[in-house]
Amino acid sequence: MRTQTVDLLILGAGVAGVYAALAAEAEGARVLLLSKDPLPSGATSWAQGGVAFPLGEEDLEAHLQDTLRAGRGLVEEGVARSLLEEAPKHLKRLLAWGLPFHPEPTREGGHSRARVRHLGGDRSGLFLLQGLLARLRSPVLERHLAASLLVAGNRVAGAWVLGPEGPLEVRAGAVLLATGGLGQLFPVTTNPPGATGDGMALAHRAGAVLRDLEFVQFHPTALPDGSLVSEACRGEGALLLNALGERFMPRYDPLGELAPRDVVARAVFRERERTGGVFLDLRPIPQLEERFPTVVASARALGLEPLREPIPVAPAAHYAMGGVKTDPWGFTGVPGLYAAGEVASTGFHGANRLASNSLLEGLVMGERAARAALADLAFPKALEALPALTLDPRHLPELRRRMGAGAGVVRRREGLEEALAFAEGLPLEEGPPDLAARPHLEAGNLALLARLLLRMALLREESRGAHFREDFPQEAQEAYHLEAQGLTLRRVPLGV
Ligand SMILES: Cc1cc2nc3c(=O)[nH]c(=O)nc-3n(C[C@H](O)[C@H](O)[C@H](O)COP(=O)(O)OP(=O)(O)OC[C@H]3O[C@@H](n4cnc5c(N)ncnc54)[C@H](O)[C@@H]3O)c2cc1C
Question: Is the separation of the CB atoms in 35 and 138 below 8 Å?
């Protein structure tokens, strides 16, 4: 078997992974990145709206308050404050590197001010990632999938990797998970095909804690194929209409179209059920084609003409607030294992992410996690690969259908139980990673996460942020996290 040894192995080459690599390189570390798909890969390159940066000292408190409000009592305030305090340093650096941020910030849902900085019209993520990749000197192995982590006792010390030329064992002083989210658990998602929660599943099997998986943000306005219609469109004047042609958002929230995402997603869900459809009227946006080229192109690809008429929209799984629990420096609690970006749960997003806070988190936490990992390198000798979970991917369409029906925008006990019974009945197999192919590994990871997410969603008998239980519509008085470690699920107070 081919082997390679590095200081820091980074699984994933989206914003969190690449920014982490840049920070590690700057410290002189030997870094290797893996991306299971060709670059530019991951959700980062699909991000449209931009990056939320506080406008300056005087805006820090307001940005924090907006983040806390969206997160519905579940944001770890100290973590959020420290991330936002650090944000301006990163904007300054990115500007100094020549990243083409538009000088005028835009306003997005849940933000009390225009503070989202976009690049390349609505191709913010792609421009950001390309700008970062252009500076990167470390190698990125594309089409290389981490199938399993290598461990020595309870320390993570590398990964067992499936590449086009066969397996590869990467030994590393520390491993940083930057593998993104789990949108592929749902039948309609804005996420790329690779968003199969691999990092969360790898971390779970290494003994890390997974937290708050039940909080999945549904983007309120996706086209029928899952293509995103950016929140920024509503920020710049687009209006939501029901099948009767009525504007309905002001009836649901005083912020109207700019209400937090969960509020808009549920309103869209309800109006679709009530009137048979929901449409977004983009015509009030001046220079629509120049400002939102991706949205216009995605609509046209489906035979829709947004310059002439409102286009049909529906909610789609968009962002995982939960993930691998880390401390504010990206440490997972398992020696040698760090996480940053959407795969992680730092407590920044709480029960619902504020629009455009995720790319910001990827930057800040990417750098922090890289630095923390480098301060904790170890190279144990005897390593073993943890077993991989596999599932025949032909089970996925039905699993997704049941996740959509039971654990979608509106949830209730019966639907969750039905989905869980199905997920638990799936023939998951555990075995050495070298016997499995990518689709089987991804399906295994998704099935594992489905089980955990559904168990958490059942246990959380309240409605909070993105988790809406029709049978428990009220928010519990006290906010708490749910954590899974091995087979144990527990309620944990904030701040722990
Ligand atoms: C359509 C869309 C629009 C969005 N718009 C915005 C926005 O405007 N602003 C904002 O802040 N957020 C936005 N988001 C969310 C944001 O883009 C993501 O949360 C963020 O980009 C995640 O970055 P990441 O680095 O954590 O992961 P990703 O960018 O998803 O990268 C994951 C990487 O991990 C790799 N990978 C995964 N599994 C493995 C494995 N097993 N082995 C090896 N490699 C692996 C992938 O190939 C990829 O390189 C949007 C998301 C979507 C889907």
Answer: no
Which of 359, 361, 448, when mutated, tests ligand 1's pocket best, judged by the most ligand atoms within 8 Å of its CB?
359
Q: How far is the CA of 273 from the centre of ligand 1 (A)?
A: 31
Neighbours of 112 (CB within 10 A): 14
What residues are labeled active site?
Answer: 261
Summarised one tens digit per residue, pLDDT across range 67-79 is 999 999 999 999 9
Per-residue pLDDT tens over the stretch 309-328 = 999 999 999 999 999 999 99
* Ligand 1 midpoint to CA 147 (Å): 18
What tokens were used for 349? 């997003």
Q: How far apart are CA 360 and CA 83, in angstroms?
A: 8
Position 435 pLDDT exceeds 80: no
**In angstroms, rounded to a whole number, what is the distance separating the alpha carbons of residues 144 and 146?**
7
220 CB near ligand 1 (under 6 Å): no
**How far is Cα 188 from Cα 401, in angstroms, rounded to an integer?**
9
Ligand 1 touching residue 16 (CB < 6 A):
yes
Three-state DSSP class for residue 194: coil
- Using only the alpha carbons of the chain, give its radius of gyration: 21
All structural domains of the chain, each given as residue ranges with its CATH number in brackets, are 2-181+318-374 (3.50.50.60), 219-317 (3.90.700.10), 387-493 (1.20.58.100)
